[in-house]
Description:
Blueprint lengths: L1 E8 L5 E3 L3 H15 L1 H9 L9 E3 L6 E4 L2 E4 L3 E8 L6 H8 L3 E5 L4 E12 L11 E8 L6 E3 L5 E3 L5 H18 L2 H6 L3 E6 L5 E7 L7 E7 L1 E8 H10 L12 E2 L1
Antiparallel strand pairs: 1-6, 1-8, 2-5, 3-6, 4-5, 7-8, 9-15, 9-16, 10-11, 12-15, 13-14
Amino acid sequence: MRFKIILNNITKNANLPINYQYPLSAAIYRILAKGDTEYAKSLHEKGYGKGFKLFSFSQLDFPFKIEGDRMKLLSDEVTFQIAFHLPEAMENFVKGLFKSEKIDIADKKSKVSFSVKSVESLPNPIQRYKENEIIEIQLKPLSPIVVGLRSDDGKYDFQSPDKIEFADGIIYNWRNKIESCFDEQASTSAFLMAEIIPMKTQFKSRLITIKADTQEETKIRGWMNFGLKVTAEKRFVELFLNSGAGVYNAQGMGFVSD
Length: 258
């Protein structure tokens, strides 16, 4: 399920950190915890059996001016999209959690508070297809897609879309999510394809800091400005749409849209 959330800034002289993804993710978890403590605990600690946090969100959309490592808001209205891999029956429950809430995006230097102005359900782009039908859909990232291969020291070697390892990494992560949500047999037997579609302009990369200014600080590199054509059974494409492409999805990476 997918939603468009409109926020209203309630902070004077608001300056968001450039690396707002992790604070926003933490704010989302806090909202989930208020509505259903056990659900949020399960999502945070176990995901769907393998530690996956099966939601993702887009970049924030608002006019801004860069001032150092801050983004000065030039408008009080901020929008973003968010997706959860949950049964459709939970749609009203999730909408209810966000309505009339306050979202704080803060790090050690600044804090910006928003009220949730509205929560709009977005259409399922593959709703018209049959459940087990093999479908092909072209998507675009609305937040950077991060694909990394672990090196011997346990760190990620981040890949770029012009390398075959990028599409391979997307499929590898996709299979892991299928195993988590379904079973190992479904994961190994699933027909999955991912093709990078270059645009007229060059790929764009972004270096994002997770848990900035802490001992757990991690830098990751994600990519945008390309098309992504995926082919699979409807149920697996739906999982892909709801949970995001690549890794670090719950920190706002890999949100895709048609």
